[in-house]
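Chapter summary example.
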Amino acid sequence: MLATRQVKTVLGKMGLEVHRTGHDWTDTRTFLPLEATLSAAKASGLSVADYVDARYNQPRASQVAVDDMKAMGAFEGTIERVCEIGPGSGRYLEKIKAICTPAYYEIYETAQPWARWLVDTYGVTLQPTDGETLASTPSASIDLVHAHKVFVSTSFLVTLRYFDEMARVTRPGGRVLFDVMTEDCVDDDIMHKWLAVEFDAGFYPSIVPKRTVVDFFRERGLHLVASKRGSMEPGFNEVFLFER
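The structure predicted for these 244 residues follows.
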């Protein structure tokens, strides 16, 4: 919790406070402001990725997620070409590039200030982004296509369109990793916690049946390698890894 206290101290000096609130990920106008976030991260002595984790009272959340990816087998073998959907502030991107050092890393991101910053900072390729396809990526060209905290806030049809595209661009032997909320993530206790959340963020949190997820990718030639529980307060989500 040290990182969280550091961030709160810095923001306090700026006249700001950290609250346990949600975020409307469906509206890029309400995304984290680039310049203010960069300044606060620098003042806190944290990387941007670690600062964003701490800002939402989840220190090391992105590092834990990437460690889980590794444990599930997402980085096994040679990873030359990576595609990430919705990298946002780059908190997963930063850590993944350090682990598997791909020769090519492309992103689809709707928040343009952050997208340009990611290009300048990490040398990634920004693809034209329409919010539901990977139209600029050739079929069967990607070793690892992944998304984090994206499909918990998109509509069912948008999620399926992205799933279809992720399957399309994955090469033989390539992998797909993402998280969603399934029916296993919402027992009665968890539903009461969600009902107590004091914000309304469009489709968030969106639920996709687990059988739908597994069947959808199997019918497109990808088998389920592993799945595990992930973190998504006030409940949790489910992380899936598929391989072609």
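To summarize the output: Strands lie at 81-85, 104-108, 125-126, 142-147, 170-180, 223-232, 235-243.
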